[in-house]
Amino acid sequence: MPVPKNPFKAALAKGETVFGCWLGLADTFSAELMGTAGFDWMVIDGEHGPNDLRSIIAQLQVLEASDSHPVVRLPIGETYMVKQVLDAGAQTVLVPMVESAEQARQLVRDVTYPPHGDRGVGYALTRAARFSQTKDYGKTADAEICLLVQVENRAGIAALDDILGVEGVHGVFIGPADLAADMGHMGNALHEDVQAVIMDALKRIRAAGKAPGILSTHDPMTEAAIAAGAQFVAVGADVLILSHGAQALASKWKSHKG
Question: Which own/partner pairs from 111-114 qualify as long-range (CB within 8 Å, at least 24 positions apart)?
C-alpha cells in the first residue's frame, strides 16, 4: 500500500493558488476549529509558536479529519528536526532562513530516503507509515513529500537564483517581516523598497518553475502577490484573528461605559 497523496503538492504542481492560515496557538482544540474554516492549508508553526514535537503531532492528528493540509514549519533547518516531523506524519515541511543553495541541497537530502538522501529508514515505527501498516512507505514516501524553503533576508535574496536551481525544492516562501527588518524597515513590510524586492522575487520563483509563497494580512499586498505569481498564500493567523477580534469587541463595548 502506497502513502496517501499530498493534495497540497499536487495543487502547486498544477499551478493552482491555495490559501492558508498560520496556527500559532499551539493547541489542538483551536487547530481543530481552524481546520473546519475552509482553508486549503494550515501552518503548524514551530518557529514562533510555542510548539514542540508532541504538540505538532497532536495538531497533525486533529487536522487529519479536516480538508486543510498541514504544513509544519520548523524552528530551524536541522536534519534531526526534519526527520522527526516527517516520521510524525508531516508531508509538507517549511524551513525558515534558507540563505544558500548548499543549505537547500542538504534539506533535500534530509527529506529524501537513500540512496539519494539521508533520511533514516525507521518507518516501521512511525506514525507516517501508520505504524508499519503502509507497507510501501519507504518506496513511495519521497514522491509525496513537499519541501518549502523560506527566503527572508538579503543573503537569501542574493542567493535566490542558486536556490531555485536546486532540484527537490518545490516552493520558496518569501518572509516579509524578516526581510523588511533586514532591509532596515523593521515593522514595515509595506515599504516600497521591500515590496519591490518581494514582488520581483515572487516573479523569479514562478519563472523558475517553483511555487512562490507569501504571508500577507494586507489585502492590496495579497492581491499584488497573487498577480506576481504567488501560489501558496497565507492570509491570516489564529493568534491575530483571536487577538484583533477580542480587542475590537472589548473596544466596542467599553466605549459605552458612562
Answer: 111/82, 111/86, 111/142, 111/145, 111/147, 111/168, 112/142, 112/145, 112/168, 113/138, 113/141, 113/142
What is the predicted pLDDT for the residue at 90? 98
Helix (H), strand (E), coil (C) string for the chain: CCCCCCHHHHHHHCCCCEEEEEECCCCHHHHHHHHCCCCCEEEEECCCCCCCHHHHHHHHHHHCCCCCEEEEECCCCCHHHHHHHHHCCCCEEEECCCCCHHHHHHHHHHCCCCCCCCCCCCHHHCCCCCCCCCCCHHHHHHHHCEEEEEECCHHHHHCHHHHHCCCCCCEEEECHHHHHHHCCCCCCCCCHHHHHHHHHHHHHHHHCCCEEEEECCCHHHHHHHHHCCCCEEEEEEHHHHHHHHHHHHHHHHHCCCC
Active site residue 244: no
Q: Given 48, 185, 218, 244, which residue is catalytic?
A: 48
Residue type, 61: Q
Q: What would the pLDDT profile of 111-147 be if each residue is shown by its tens digit?
A: 999 999 999 999 999 999 999 999 999 999 999 999 9
Predicted confidence at residue 81, as pLDDT, reads 98
For domain 7-254, give the fold. Answer: TIM Barrel (3.20.20)
Domain residue ranges of the chain, discontinuous segments joined by +? 7-254
With a cut of 70, which residues of the chain have pLDDT below it? 258
pLDDT at residue 258 in the model: 59
